[in-house]
Design a protein that fits this description.
295 residues, mainly alpha, single chain
Length: 295
């Protein structure tokens, strides 16, 4: 689904008007002047609620997304895409167990949908990487060219300590999309886990060449530089990540380590206070959201 950008609010307004009208049917007239029902009322309302839900998803209003797709499911309990989309927002709200229940329902209704199996894997990968691998493998069986499955599989292998296998997955993802910044970054992370920090830095720099505003790659590069004892350079990377996102608690945390390595303890304590402040504010969300796809 392509995001609607600043049109989302307008789309929601239009859908609200259609829902309020409670249209019973749309008719069509053939060449002989005979009129027949082209679209039933429930189909119209289902499409309106679904479109409204997708617009809310673009705005990051996931509680509203869930309400919209609950309406779609109420109208059509066998709508697999609605179950999938509800699952996505539950995962974004840090409710992976509830999200998985929705994905399971969607898979029951549409067992050959690779993307939903990938989404389920994304919900599982943080806590149950072995089960996530099963989902990704099934998704790859259904669609070997689905980028998110290879990316997710790489994450799962890294979580299981199988870094060579993870590297193969990220390389496969980059075959499918050579300009994917997330795959370049995680290929670098995998090299770092293999203590190949020089090679890791090349991957991070490629990611930043593609997207200079990708804060996670600045953090990753900073960590690799710190491992090589280049603490001043590492600190500049963490500072850049914070400049891009002042609420990035990870960047503040890694900056603490760099400052301590440079014996700048007073500055480190200030950063640590900032970490504590941010951690009390930030809700948990899925780390795999960038590869979750609405239907």
């Amino acid at each position: 689904l392509e995001k609607q950008g600043d049109k989302s609010d307008e789309i929601i307004r239009c859908m609200d008007s259609i829902i309020e009208m409670n249209i019973k049917s749309l008719t069509t007239t053939d060449d002989d002047g005979r009129t027949s029902v082209a679209v039933e009322g429930d189909d119209i309302m289902g499409l309106a609620w679904s479109t409204k839900g997708k617009a809310y998803y673009d705005l990051g209003k996931h509680e509203e997304v869930i309400k919209c797709f609950d309406k779609v499911i109420e109208l059509d309990p066998k709508n697999a895409d609605a179950w999938n989309n509800k699952g996505l927002s539950l995962d974004m709200l840090g409710k992976p167990e509830e999200a998985i229940e929705c994905y399971d329902k969607a898979i029951e209704l549409k067992p050959n949908d690779a993307q939903t199996r990938c989404n389920k894997g994304n919900a599982l990968v943080d806590q149950k990487p072995e089960e996530a691998l099963e989902c990704y493998d099934k998704a790859i069986e259904l669609d070997p060219k689905l980028l998110g499955t290879w990316y997710g599989k790489g994450i799962a292998f890294n979580d299981l300590g199988k870094h060579e296998e993870a590297l193969e997955c990220f390389e496969k993802a980059l075959e499918l999309d050579p300009n994917n910044v997330f795959a370049w970054n995680n290929k670098g992370v995998t090299f770092s886990k293999l203590d190949k920090n020089e090679e890791a830095i090349k991957c991070y720099e490629k990611a930043l060449e593609l997207d200079p505003k990708y804060g996670y790659a600045w953090n990753s590069k900073g960590n690799a530089l710190a491992e090589l004892g280049k603490h001043e350079e590492a600190l500049k990377c963490f500072e850049k990540a914070i400049e891009l996102d002042p609420k990035d608690s990870s960047a503040w945390w890694w900056q603490v380590g760099a400052l301590m390595d440079l014996n700048k303890k007073e500055e480190a304590i200030k950063c640590l206070d900032k970490v504590i402040e941010l951690l009390t504010e930030q809700p948990e969300s899925s780390t795999m959201s960038r590869f979750n796809i609405l239907k």
